[in-house]
Amino acid sequence: MKKSIILVLLLLSVSGTARSQVLISLVFGDALNTDKIEFGLTGGFNRTDFNGTLETKALNNFNLGFYFHIMLKENSFLSTGVLVKNSFGATGMKPYQLGDPNLDAIFQNGTLTTKINTFAVPIMWQQRIKHRFLLEGGIQAGLRSKAYDDFDVEAANGAANFRREVGDEFYRLDAGLIGGVGYKLKKELKSMSIGMLYYYGLVDVRIDPNITSKNTSLNVYLRIPIGAGQKD
């Protein structure tokens, strides 16, 4: 349990919006973990981009959530959960006109970054090999909360930035394929694991018919069971 609390404290330092969900996870972790269900926290590094018509660069961020591994048969599990702090997006795009001559003059040579805050729910088949190696694959659904366009420019006399809320330019729902590999640090049924997942969006998330943007992400995660009776 000490290891779990340490991870929570670290993750809370980068997450304000997900604090209540994490605290609930700690309180009910003992009840949610059973002989056939592993429950815990997941968090890690996320590198996202758009697959579409825009020229973009990958955007780095972090995510945080909780997971369930439900045993279907020996070494085969249903892997699901919710990423409550999670975002998609990209950077390195050319700024568009804002309709304000002063702002347009400032940011015309700057950089545009789009960030879409999304609750993500993966539903995967997980196969465990020799109780340690994990193979996962399935689908993932997403529900957008807020989205922002950040304009940034650096010049000899300083830097400037401007944020615009653009939630109404993106659809609420997202869906795609997800899969990856992982490794459990101990042979026990419920133990910490590390791994990597890749998400490939199948849905164009932009409402504008002239621009195609499908979410993609590469996630390096750490999962820790909560209330599973680990010995420190």
TrEMBL record:
What keywords are annotated for this sequence in UniProt?
Answer: Signal
Q: Which residues form the signal peptide?
A: 1-20
Where does the Outer membrane protein beta-barrel domain lie? 36-205
- The protein depicted here goes by the name Outer membrane protein beta-barrel domain-containing protein
This chain's source organism reads Mariniradius saccharolyticus AK6
